[in-house]
Design brief:
Helices cover about 40% and strands about 10% of the residues. By secondary structure, it is α/β, with parallel strands linked by helices.
């Protein structure tokens, strides 16, 4: 068993920050994101929709950023984790279902058709692809956040229904394609289906409390690599204070632009 598990290059929206080992939002690529866990390399490319990854020239330029990283930064044949879909499920799927008078399932399938066209492209490039699940939607906004910081459409039950379908269908597609699916969603919700707020550091982003469980799930995908043996050091009081300050500054800057 190797002493250090093979590095995983994690690319995605703000939720990819979880793999930095910190309770804050990672710097936007091409700024370097300095992580605490040696087995992960984190690349935050902004509020990119899974649905838009197949399209050039979108406002976020998600496709261009994704493939720039894959072609110029990530070594050939590496493990690549994709973290997309939460924004789709929180802000777009229910809205589109209402606008078109279609079931949520239909809109999710349309989104996944676009997303997986890109997943397959990356697989054909020779990378070992891992698709990370979408996390549960918020049920309440954190006190320190304005209601519109992370816009959402529909009741939380509708958004979680969209997320549940998204994850279930993603898992099926991954199995068909021989792609790994990393799931920690069940650990992030309670018996009532609501998000377990103790597992989040703000109203939507998963905290490091969920990392040991996630590493166990990753170890199930790659038992020979020993991801479960990765030491997750608790955040020190100083690190928590720094992360909190960074989050506060980020929110102030974001609200100041509105």
């Amino acid at each position: 068993m190797p002493q250090t598990p093979q590095a995983i290059y994690c690319i995605g929206d703000s939720h990819v920050s979880f793999f930095s080992g910190k309770d804050t939002i990672a710097a936007h690529w091409p700024k370097r994101s300095r992580g605490r866990l040696s087995c992960f390399r984190t690349f935050h490319i902004g509020p990119v929709l899974a649905y838009n990854l197949s399209r050039l020239g979108t406002k976020t330029r998600g496709r261009e950023k994704l493939f720039a990283i894959l072609e110029n930064v990530v070594p050939p044949s590496s493990r690549v984790l994709l973290c997309f879909g939460e924004i789709d499920c929180r802000a777009h799927v229910v809205k589109r279902a209402m606008a078109e008078a279609l079931p949520i399932d239909c809109i999710v399938q349309r989104c996944l058709d676009a997303y997986f066209s890109v997943v397959c492209e990356i697989q054909r490039m020779g990378f070992d692809v891992i698709v990370y699940n979408v996390m549960p939607t918020r049920t309440n906004a954190a006190i320190s956040e304005k209601p519109d910081e992370y816009p959402s459409v529909g009741a939380w039950e509708e958004r979680n229904a969209a997320t549940t379908v998204f994850n279930a269908e993603t898992q099926k597609r991954c199995k068909t394609l021989g792609i790994q699916f990393l799931e920690n969603y069940p650990h992030l919700v309670g018996a009532d289906g609501k998000m377990n707020e103790k597992q989040f550091f703000d109203s939507i982003h998963v905290s490091q409390y969920a990392m040991p469980f996630t590493l166990q799930k990753l170890n199930e995908l790659y038992p020979e690599d020993g991801y479960a043996n990765v030491v997750v050091q608790p955040l020190s009081c100083g690190e928590k204070a720094i992360d909190g300050t960074i989050n506060l500054i980020r929110r102030c800057i974001r609200h100041g632009r509105r």
